[in-house]
Amino acid sequence: EVLTEDPETAFCTLANREDLNSEEGSVCQCLYQFTRNETLTETNKLLCDVCTQRHYGRKKNIKSENKYVYTNAKKQMLISLAPPVLTLHLKRFQHAGFNLRKVNKHIKFPEVIDLAPFCTAKCKNVAEGNTRVLYSLYGVVEHSGTMRSGHYTAYAKVRSMNNHLSDLVLRGQPPQALETEPVKGQWFHISDTHVQAVSASKVLSSQAYLLFYERLL
User: Fold this and answer.
1) How far is Cα 185 from Cα 99, in angstroms, rounded to an integer?
2) Where do the domains of the chain lie, and which CATH numbers do they carry?
3) Higher confidence at residue 123 or residue 174?
């Protein structure tokens, strides 16, 4: 489905991206790079039906004759629907010749993350007037080892039930106003049958592979 957007708002976000503190080697920097504005030129030009019709006229056999007009364009990936639960999967491998190599670099991630700089200005299920879309961390999956072998462990936060999250999942009602601090609770490290209470700082220093956040605001 092709939608005609207002050129003035098509690339606008809920919050100013220029004010974002995207620290080097952080999840915020990864999201900023993933949602950056791209220019499509040369071999990446966009096939434009409007330009084709304008050039060749409204002929029925244009496609059968493979007559197309390509044009320069801008592209940007933004979030149009803020999810109740945000799952971030960090790519922890890279090509080294014909082989794959695991990336062991620590990626910084916060306890509370704001998705507003990465959401379209018309993002659904965000209350009118809100310029923040906040999420609280509640789970982390970590992998230790190499590409050939290793072990998965997890960090999980035991916390009280988030009724506003239930309303969003079951009824589609966006939260109006909630706490902007991390959901209170105790973190635990789980490795097979071994479970141990840990501090939040221990969790934030882990080599995250998967991150799980729940919607706050």
Assistant:
1) 42
2) 79-215 (3.90.70.10)
3) 123
